[in-house]
Give the backbone structure.
Amino acid sequence: MPQRFVAYVVCPKCQRSGAAVWEESEDPVWQRGEWSTTMTRVSEGFQPGRAGQIFCAACDVKAVVRQGKQER
């Protein structure tokens, strides 16, 4: 069963806080049957960047990841 991972983020400049969600998915064609993780959601006020980075939409500063938890 695929798992969901939540990372809580905060902008170090304006202190806006939010969350990002990654979900596992199995893609046998491209990943040869292995699980891959994809960012599926980001809180309003943040935008995804390359390689799983998250940026504050207002400040264009890389967000800092706070505590995270794993959901089922």
Summary: Residues 15 and 63 are 9 Å apart (CA to CA). DSSP finds one helix and six strands in the chain. The radius of gyration is 13 Å. Residues 4-67 form one domain.
